[in-house]
Design goal:
Shape: globular
Largest sheet: 5 strands, parallel
Helix content: 25-40%
Number of domains: 2
Strand order of the largest sheet: 5-4-6-7-8
CATH architecture of the largest domain: 3-Layer(aba) Sandwich
CATH topology of the largest domain: Rossmann fold
């Protein structure tokens, strides 16, 4: 069962977090709109009642939501610094959550370098991010000041930890991200990836993610290119090995090798390095 926590920041902005079972806190925070004292009290009462009764509303996946926790802020600033170092030109940018961020890890960095090291590439993954968190940071700066050639987007798994996940809502959040990228980076190509599977064996969480994948596959077209590579992480019986996902969510080195090799040719195609393969 998920547990929700609510608090007000020093600036009087409502903050909330959702802690999934057997997983780290997924923190999400509202935009910077100050609230009156009475508004704070009323909202607090509504949220407390919701928590006690198990009916607390999940954040809207389509509404930008700032991360104000230390980890979220630190990783966001790290990305901002990386973007500045690109001097206005980026070949390849990966947008996502901790699964994307962990390309930075000691064991997986060599795989990043092997596949993406020849490009002016940047890792824009933040641990715990949801679609609404990505929307906030892309809207407020992380798509500005440079021109990118290709974005790789894989986001949404952290929207699936709540008890009442609505796949259509998560898909709508992904669509908002695509629309924002297209509006701010109209010359870029976007490689939209399926949400990766989780859990050692087939489970309800995987089913939810598969449903979302079917919905976001419909966004393929124009400069958006959809790829479903989820099955590549599975063994013949549908299970996921510890080598691929040591904690049944995040990838190990073998998992990153699977990911990179699965999209490598498509990335080259979008970069204009190889011709698109003709359909039979």
């Amino acid at each position: 069962m998920s547990h929700a926590c609510v608090a007000f920041s020093a600036s009087g902005v409502l903050a909330s977090s959702v802690i999934p079972p057997n997983g780290p806190a997924r923190q999400a925070h509202s935009l910077r709109k100050p609230m009156s004292l009475m508004h704070k009290v009323l909202v607090s009462l509504v949220l407390v009642v919701g928590i006690l009764t198990g009916t607390a509303a999940e954040p809207n996946p389509s509404v930008p939501l700032e991360r104000t926790d230390d980890m979220g802020k630190e990783q966001r600033e790290e990305i901002n610094d990386d973007l500045k170092k690109m001097n206005g030109k980026i070949d390849l940018a990966f947008i996502g959550d901790s699964i994307t961020r962990r390309w930075r890890g000691d064991e997986s960095k060599s795989i990043w370098d092997k596949y993406w090291g020849s490009y002016r590439s940047v890792n824009m993954g933040i641990g715990g991010d949801t679609t609404q968190n990505v929307l906030w940071r892309l809207q407020y700066g992380q798509l500005d000041g440079y021109q990118a050639r290709v974005f790789v987007v894989m986001i949404g798994t952290n929207n699936c930890w709540g008890e009442h996940t609505v796949p259509a809502d998560v898909a709508a959040g992904v669509k908002k991200i695509l629309e924002l990228i297209k509006s701010k980076q109209p010359r870029a190509q976007i490689l939209l990836l399926s949400i990766f599977p989780n859990g050692e064996k087939p489970n309800e969480g995987r089913t939810t993610r598969m449903t979302i994948n079917k919905l976001i596959s419909k966004f393929h077209g124009g400069n958006v290119h959809y790829m479903d590579i989820a099955a590549k992480f599975l063994q013949s019986d549908g299970s996921i090995s510890n080598e691929v996902m040591p904690d049944e969510l995040h990838l190990g080195p073998k998992g990153y090798e699977i990911w990179a090799s699965a999209i490598n040719e498509k990335v080259k195609e979008l970069m204009g390095e190889v011709r698109p393969k003709k359909k039979p």
